[in-house]
Amino acid sequence: MYTIGFLTLQTMKKSAHVEFLTSKGWDIVPVTEEEFSIDVDKIDALVIQEEAMPVTCRWLMEITRQVTEVPIYLLSTSGGKHSNIVYLQLGVEACFPIEIDQEEFYYTMTNLLVRRYKMGKHIKEENRNMYSLKSAGLELVPSNLSVVIDGEEEIILTRKEFQAMELLYNNPCRAITYEEFKEKMWDPEQNEPEKNYRIANVVFHLRNKIEQNPMNPRFIKTVRSKGYMLDMK
């Protein structure tokens, strides 16, 4: 379950939302007005119960200066559209009316956090792949339709070569099938024969450009009868 920081001037025990989250196994960490030091490694999100608008705005300005990694949600007691817009501009990700049903609040928060952390995991995985590819000596430059080898030589590609390279680059160490290349590189409505041959021809020219020895390729490996794979080793 999740751990939530909760900032309110009210007694937390009186909060039906806190009680419901606790009953679902969530851990609630009280955050006091006197001490805004928040350990972002120990909470998954921060929930603020709105006070007077100037007070809430001050809280948000202080908190967002030190907290950037965790989402901030707000329970709005005023329900004012104007104040909610201001809070969103100050960094709140979502405003909920204080009257929101506890179960609805629980499931909405769950969905938001699940989606957020799945996205975060995906971004981390992409960054890890990018780092691995750079470490392997290969970097794609979309703005130039080019690829940089070993951080030194930039090689300009044709549009088809770049499309093929981009598909391989975004899926390192995974065999890309001829069918996937077709979907990426040609309009599916085009009835062009021998597309497998055309894909092989594009890869042939791509290897001649980026490989020191096209007959023993360092980057683009053939997966027999299936397609091609970008090797990061």
TrEMBL record:
GO term, biological process aspect, one: phosphorelay signal transduction system
Domain OmpR/PhoB-type: 128-232
SMART domains per UniProt: Trans_reg_C
One example GO MF annotation: DNA binding
Taxonomy, superkingdom: Bacteria
Annotated PROSITE patterns: OMPR_PHOB
DNA-binding region in chain numbering: 128-232
Record keywords, A-Z: DNA-binding, Transcription, Transcription regulation
Official protein name in the record: OmpR/PhoB-type domain-containing protein
Source organism per UniProt: Candidatus Enterococcus palustris
